Amino acid sequence: MAEKIKKEQASYSAKDIQVLEGLEPVRKRPGMYIGSTGPDGLHHLVWEIVNNSIDEAMAGYATHVTVELMKDGGVSITDNGRGIPVDIHPKTKKSALETALITLHAGGKFAEGSYKVSGGLHGVGVSVVNALSTKLKAEVWRDGGSYVQEYKIGVPQYNVKKVGSSGKTGTRITFYADPAIFNKIEYDLKKILDYLRNQAYLTKSIRIDVVDARTEPESYYSFYFEGGLLSLLAHLLGERQPVHGNLFYAQKEIDGIDVEVALAYTGDNEVEELSFANNIYTPDGGTHLTGLRSALTRTLNDYARREGYLKEAEENLTGDDVREGLVAAVSIKIREPQFEGQTKARLGNTEARAAVESAVSESLKEFLERYGADARKIIEKNILAAKARKAAKAAKETVLRKGAFEGLTLPGKLADCSSRRADESELFIVEGDSAGGSCKQGRDRRTQAVLPLKGKILNVEKARIDKMLLNKEIRSLVVALGTAISDQFDIEKLRYHKIVLMTDADVDGAHIRTLLLTLFYRYFPQIVNGGFLYIAQPPLFRVQKGKEVQYVFNEEKLQEVLKSFGKESVNIQRYKGLGEMNPEQLWETTLNPANRVLKQVNVEDAVQADKMFDILMGEAVEPRKNFIQAHAASVKNLDV
Description:
This protein is α+β, with helices and mostly antiparallel strands. It folds into four domains: 24-223, Heat Shock Protein 90, CATH 3.30.565; 229-395, Ribosomal Protein S5, domain 2 (2-Layer Sandwich); 402-538, Rossmann fold (3-Layer(aba) Sandwich); 607-633, no CATH class. Strands 1, 2, 3, 4, 5, 6, 7, 8 and 9 form a nine-stranded mixed sheet that branches. Helix 13 links the parallel strand 15 and strand 16 (448-453). Helix 9 (287-306) packs parallel to helix 11 (350-370).
């Protein structure tokens, strides 16, 4: 009966169909238009306005863009393009400026002949920014006049008005993101600089200035590059040296699609690929990146066969083989890009793949034939990667037996917990048998497992997976985790949902922790991204006066405790290692969930983290030396 009454009460007729007019849908569902209401969505507002200015530059009308982060929380973006039209639109009977600012899918990007290519082809950019801002001011200079119009939450406060004469052309948009929409209004200068730097690389000879008025004094930055993707490639390489002398660069127009590609091979194992469509960064790649990969694999295999590097009986190089150590950027300009979603994370045009594949295949073939020594270096790098792949496969087949990951052959040194529920189980990875002994005695045996590691594990930044899996300590850890590794990795089989690195508070302990972090970052990124990795914070000092005892985690806190205790008759014990704690102390300070301090490991900027691991743990000495020299003055704690 209750169900029948509920059905009768539920109205579903024409009056229940909600029609959101104008910019209402944007405020109702902002995530559909800018991806999220977090930091990425907030910065997407900046990208939308900047992209309009870049479109003017790609069309040949703008040469200068200025982005200002204002002291009062606003953002102002100015270009010297043609200026948004201000005359009356024949359909809306409003100014073209107002039409662009309050109407979704309105703009010059849809008109035949207005723009050959454009990043903002969805046509919702400036109107979405307007809808999600408490205030927005549009200033336009064109046809000898200066015009202005202001808005509040997408609503015009007055008609477009001419406020004077002007001999210049261009547009300035100043907006204030709505705190009722966004979690936090805080613009990340580094994120903005990285984005604008890429735009300058992708648009030859455009000047982009950035002013951060939030600082005292104001900060100024300027980008201008004439080399296009070659300049970007040099930036991506940094201090890494390619294995070949000449960098590969190609720019061709195939069936009306402009294709630009720059690439080089380094001695590293990692791959770094950036892809852009109409100057829009596509972090998830798409058909243009697929075209680049296909062309590389086919062309390098053809060359290796023709020149005798690959014998008739040998199998072809795989896509992974020819991408190992690759640093590449591909940019296309296409008339009607088909992006997946408003945030344009992936390109879907099938014709883009064919254009890139054709352009790269033709140009790379010419490059290999012209620079024989470089071709040999590249092919040798590819073949070395293929040999390592085969060796790694053999090693995995030997080491990663099926039974090992079903708990049947857990390492003997592992003191496992009795619980078989991963969500309540914890694995403490400790340094040495001494700390391992105290930890095993002091732990909660039901939920806490302990795996002591002997000495410093292998630096996986400098070793391939086949060598890595021959390392006894790493093999014990892989088996204990239960997930397997590489292409066999399965996060669902993770045996512990808290994996805690617990090392001594000295230089050796920090080094071991860094080696372990490198291992997890390179080979178990899903564990890091899933929030399962932690770093323990054992105390540095035990301070006792009479019967009162306090554990202290840093020097600053120690001085506070000493001041509260009074200096006399105070016993201070400094823990040089975890092994100096008895089991009760270790439980009380570091193992007991009620008292302990754990730091969760996360990677906010994967690209920068990747480069930092390369610098600190990689083969090249010079970048590490330069990093140490640059940051020596900021070191606060150094064990000697």
